[in-house]
Write a structure and sequence with these properties.
Helices cover 43% and strands 0% of the residues. It is flat. By secondary structure, the protein is an all-alpha fold. It starts with 5 loop residues before the first helix and ends with a helix.
Length: 91
């Protein structure tokens, strides 16, 4: 489970940040020039050799994407099911 952090505090807590037009801007922190520079520096270190490492978090992304899509769920055990068994299911 994801920990609630400053992002949650901004959206649900007492630290909202708004732009000049009064819109809630939870992306303000990622748009910060220092954050953008650090992100660009990190992206420039990614190579084919280190892509599938903690540098990118690719394994975590794929695991979470699959779980959120109903695949690769912990504790799931595959079962063989025939077409006839599926047809016999009642709505």
């Amino acid at each position: 489970m994801t920990n609630c952090n400053n992002y949650c505090d901004m959206l649900y807590g007492d630290k909202p940040e708004y732009d000049e037009q009064g819109r809630l801007r939870p992306d303000n922190w990622e748009l910060d020039p220092q954050t953008q520079a650090a992100t660009e520096a990190l992206i420039n270190t990614i190579t084919a050799e280190n892509f599938n490492t903690p540098v990118t978090g690719y394994d975590t992304f794929i695991k979470e994407f699959n779980v959120n899509s109903g695949f690769d769920v912990d504790g799931y055990q595959a079962e063989s099911v025939t077409l006839e068994e599926l047809i016999a299911l009642k709505p």
